[in-house]
């Protein structure tokens, strides 16, 4: 599948990314990406919002659960409201859940019809606790377990001089938030782990006001360069026009079917054939034993 | 005489909409109490305002308002709660559904250890849930934000970062980066918070100057 389809599929919960982690910062908060999740989620999806720090929760949310509770009680509440329909569970921060209980809670919520999306504020510092210093940090554990990691940031500005960018980040680390941060248009870096274990890395730009999701332009530029390389080499037409390319990118390949969850996990190896309009369907099996 | 050319940001009505949370950060060079006084004075005319301070006593604000030409008694909607030297027990009790709550330096409590950082963040969120609107002032001095592993810096950073992640707007007070000037006290930036609201925040940079009872703000 072309990576340009990946983030839209994750947002629309079409992809079986059961455990998504969003890493954000004060410079670009995850709240706009969360609102994209809520916008793109299918209407039938049951949305649970575990609220620790959101004053006004989006209307799309079906059940708001206050997170400021004991973890065991919280878990019970979430499980009760999950039901059997497709459920999206959002955590607006993970900072309040004790490290020791965090993964136990998250794993107990992940199942074949739930998608867990949690926000991790990347600029929070972990307290170096001497007693558990050999244990990996929450962030590295999340990195390890998540099926996709979305890192939000401001739109990249390749034309800006490095010293200006440095000044910009110095101001943010001094909490002097410069203009233009937390803009409705932002960049999302996706690290998606396929079931095969291969990971796909792609960058997107998301517009929260128009709900448009597009793959970052530098990718398109690369393709143009490829086309340039092939130019004038032969008299054959080896290139694809932008229109061809766009049409090609939009095709959802049939083998995605094989990655779908069935009863008891992934149903690999099944043959899925979609008849096209000119196909001649033959009732008789030509390979049938004639006797 | 008070000159206060506010260019819209202190119209109050515009910025402090219902159910918003704003964070003001200041450093030791530019004390932030003056801006809280301005908000109390301006909002207090038509809104219920509760100012909770860990840093100053009630006298301080009575005097600060007097310098602005207004008596505290003339603002019946305003209540000053000084918890100077006291433990911040059950802060939510001071909140009110119809009141704008202004918190001055709750970071002092987490720094001195009378409250855990996560409890502080939680309490400030709970105050937001039971108030009309909340504004909070915290310090952003560089020793408090250093990346070394001192517990004070880690705690203070985590408090500020988590509060910033709840904001609808941010006001930053800093000294002039180029040094001192005769007619400028510091810079004031208004920027968008991390949480989008229906209210558009007019992102702008200003210079301000305080001399005696005069407060002057000019766009940069």
UniProtKB/TrEMBL annotation, chain A:
Coiled coil: none annotated. Pathway: tRNA modification; 5-methoxycarbonylmethyl-2-thiouridine-tRNA biosynthesis. Its main location: cytoplasm. The keyword Cytoplasm applies. One of its GO terms (cellular component) is cytosol. The keyword Ubl conjugation does not apply. Pfam families: Elong_Iki1. It is found in: Cytoplasm; Nucleus. InterPro entries: Elp5 (IPR019519), P-loop_NTPase (IPR027417). Keywords: Cytoplasm, Nucleus, tRNA processing. GO terms for biological process: tRNA modification; tRNA wobble uridine modification. CDD domains: Elp5 (cd19496). Belongs to the ELP5 family. This is Elongator complex protein 5.
UniProtKB/TrEMBL annotation, chain B:
One of its GO terms (cellular component) is elongator holoenzyme complex. Pathway: tRNA modification; 5-methoxycarbonylmethyl-2-thiouridine-tRNA biosynthesis. It comes from the Eukaryota. Gene3D superfamilies: P-loop containing nucleotide triphosphate hydrolases. Transmembrane segments: none annotated. Belongs to the ELP6 family. This is YALI0D21494p. The lineage of its organism: Eukaryota, Fungi, Dikarya, Ascomycota, Saccharomycotina.
């Amino acid at each position: 599948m072309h990576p340009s389809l990946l983030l839209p599929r994750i947002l629309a919960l079409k992809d079986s990314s059961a455990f998504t982690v969003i890493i954000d910062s004060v410079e670009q908060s995850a709240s706009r990406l969360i609102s994209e999740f809520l916008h793109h989620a299918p209407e039938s999806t049951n949305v649970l919002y575990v609220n620790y720090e959101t004053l006004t929760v989006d209307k799309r949310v079906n059940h708001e659960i206050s997170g400021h509770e004991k973890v065991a009680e919280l878990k019970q509440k979430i499980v009760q409201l999950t039901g059997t329909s497709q459920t999206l569970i959002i955590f607006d921060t993970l900072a309040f859940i004790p490290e020791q209980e965090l993964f136990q809670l998250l794993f107990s919520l992940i199942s074949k019809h739930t998608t867990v999306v949690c926000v991790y504020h990347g600029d929070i510092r972990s307290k170096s606790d001497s007693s558990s210093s050999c244990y990996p940090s929450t962030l590295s554990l999340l990195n390890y377990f998540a099926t996709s990691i979305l890192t939000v940031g401001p739109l990249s500005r390749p034309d800006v001089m490095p010293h200006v960018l440095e000044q910009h980040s110095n101001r943010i680390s001094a909490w002097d938030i410069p203009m233009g941060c937390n803009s409705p248009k932002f960049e999302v870096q996706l690290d998606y782990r396929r079931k095969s274990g291969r990971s796909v890395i792609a960058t997107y730009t998301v517009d929260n006001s128009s709900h448009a999701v597009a793959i970052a332009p530098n990718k398109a530029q690369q393709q143009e360069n490829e086309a340039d390389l092939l130019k004038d080499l032969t008299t054959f037409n080896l290139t694809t026009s932008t229109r061809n390319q766009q049409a090609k990118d939009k095709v959802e390949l049939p083998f995605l079917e094989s990655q779908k969850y069935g009863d008891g996990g992934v149903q690999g190896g099944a043959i899925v054939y979609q008849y096209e309009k000119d196909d001649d369907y033959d009732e008789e099996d030509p390979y049938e034993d004639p006797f | 005489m008070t000159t206060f050319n506010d260019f819209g940001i202190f119209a109050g009505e515009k910025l402090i909409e219902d159910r918003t949370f704003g964070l003001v950060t200041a450093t030791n060079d530019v004390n932030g109490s003056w801006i809280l006084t301005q908000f109390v004075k301006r909002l207090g005319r038509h809104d219920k305002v509760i100012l909770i301070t860990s840093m100053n006593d009630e006298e301080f604000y009575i005097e600060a308002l007097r310098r602005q030409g207004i008596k505290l008694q003339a603002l019946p909607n305003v209540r000053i709660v000084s918890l100077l030297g006291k433990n911040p027990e059950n802060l939510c009790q001071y909140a009110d559904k119809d009141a704008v709550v202004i918190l001055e330096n709750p970071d002092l409590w987490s720094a001195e250890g009378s409250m855990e950082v996560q409890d502080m963040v939680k309490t400030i969120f709970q105050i937001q849930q039971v108030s009309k609107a909340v504004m909070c002032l915290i310090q952003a001095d560089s020793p408090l934000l250093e990346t070394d592993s001192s517990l004070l810096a880690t705690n203070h950073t985590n408090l500020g970062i988590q509060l910033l992640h709840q904001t609808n707007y941010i006001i930053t007070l800093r000294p002039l980066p180029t040094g001192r000037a005769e007619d400028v006290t510091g810079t004031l930036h208004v920027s968008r918070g991390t949480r989008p609201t229906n209210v558009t925040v007019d992102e702008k940079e200003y210079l301000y100057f305080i001399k005696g009872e005069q407060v002057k703000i000019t766009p940069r």
